[in-house]
Design goal:
Layout: H1 15-34, H2 51-56, H3 58-61, E1 65-78, E2 81-88, E3 91-98, H4 99-102, H5 104-112, E4 119-128, E5 134-145, H6 161-166, H7 168-174, H8 176-198, E6 202-203, E7 209-210, E8 222-225, E9 230-234, H9 239-247, E10 252-260, E11 272-281, H10 285-304, E12 308-311, E13 314-317, E14 323-326, H11 327-335, H12 345-354, H13 365-376, E15 385-388, E16 410-415, E17 418-425, H14 430-445, H15 456-463, E18 469-475, H16 476-484
Parallel strand pairs: 3-5, 6-10, 14-15
Antiparallel strand pairs: 1-2, 1-4, 2-3, 4-5, 7-9, 8-9, 10-11, 11-18, 12-13, 15-16, 16-17, 17-18
Helix pairs in contact: 7-8, 8-10, 11-13, 12-13, 14-15
Amino acid sequence: MADEKNNAPVEELTQESINEQRQIRIDKLRAMQEAGNDPFEITLATQTHESAEIKAQFDALENKEVSICGRIIARRIMGKASFVSIQDREGRIQSYVSINDVGEEAYTAFKKQWDIGDIIEIKGFVFKTRTGEISVHAQQIRLLSKSLLPLPEKFHGLTDTDTRYRRRYLDLIMNADVKDTMIKRSLIVRTIRNYLDAQGFIEVETPMLVSNAGGAAARPFETHFNALNEDLKLRISLELYLKRLIVGGLERVYEIGRVFRNEGLDTRHNPEFTLMELYQAYTDYNGMMDLTENLFRHVAQTVLGTTTIVYNGVEMDLGKPFKRITMIDAVKEYAGVDWNEIETLEDARKVADEHHVEYEKRHGKGDILNLFFETFVEEHLIQPTFVMDHPIEISPLTKKKPGHPGYVERFEFFMNGWEMANAYSELNDPLDQRERFKAQELALAQGDEEANTTDEDFLMALEYGMPPTGGIGYGIDRMCMLMTDSAAIRDVLLFPTMKSLDK
């Protein structure tokens, strides 16, 4: 930022200098208020154009009157005429401010009482300076809001990661790429909605507070509802309520919403994140693969203008047909183990020991297959890949694969070595579902804290009859990470979960 008196660059701000400058600004505010010019009494401003619009339409707007609003980012005070740069949501634009145009009183206030960080209104006409910069020649200026804290100085900027996440409002002011990422995230979500709406899906909302947090393998957050004196949980998925709507005949539904999982923090995990789940009657997991391939390709083309995504220097091509491979074939390809030859649990444990794959006593043959997949395969799935036909042990809500005992019609969609989506041919047999819940209850009793519990109301809904259905869940945050080349999930969340400073 600049020095409060002469606008010269200063060294990186210390807390002492911040406190000093804050007091100087408060004193300026008090002086304005005592003179009857309290900026905080202003309730309305005029913004006819934004910075990017003026620059893009200069030929049409040259010499035309405009009114712009934004935050002072920089200024050059030069006696009776000055330049000020303001920042709005679309970018920055310069304004020429002269005592002859705005009047002595306003110009003196601009020089003596306004600061970098203040929010102002400028009315004037569009022109180009002698250096060719598109600007606004101010005829009226007005202070709309006084900034009491100085912005980070411009040479060091706001680079501390912890501060950026905690003070996202400051991050958005100082780092244009952060704002661009968040705007692009909004466009991604809007594009998804538009695509699904055009396919006949309807968007719905289901409860976040639930008595039974099912539909995924995750530990829930728990709370207590005083009014009913009942323990409740925050949902870990959207699945079971959306399937109830399929039973009710809505046939094509989706929800984009926050879910909550009591798990660790890392570059791809935040305890609250955005999940989209959709369910379509009269189709299966093959239909979900087709929908996913078309959706990702459409979103990339709409948002990025290309079907090639570049993440951390690696290109991923969404324009080509996505690879489809079974989990068994993937493990054979990357681990060199043919699971078709593993006949017993003892065989599975033996080959796991040989390959140094750690497992627990409660794990079955299918669980160990999944451990092989996680250990040897996932990191290699860079290009868009559907991994199909999972073991039944890890898929309690999925329809069995005909002719393949022990496996189900499920796929996970991978890009960049990340799981991007998880889909099933949904289990609609209520008797089979009850047995699957029993197996989950047993796993829970054996120490699996992520196992599901029996949901009697959901079972009742299934007993009224659910049509053959395909369903899928997408991690919206990971999609946004890939399409904005963001290194961590926190970079695409406006307010990621942070440890409290007083802990």
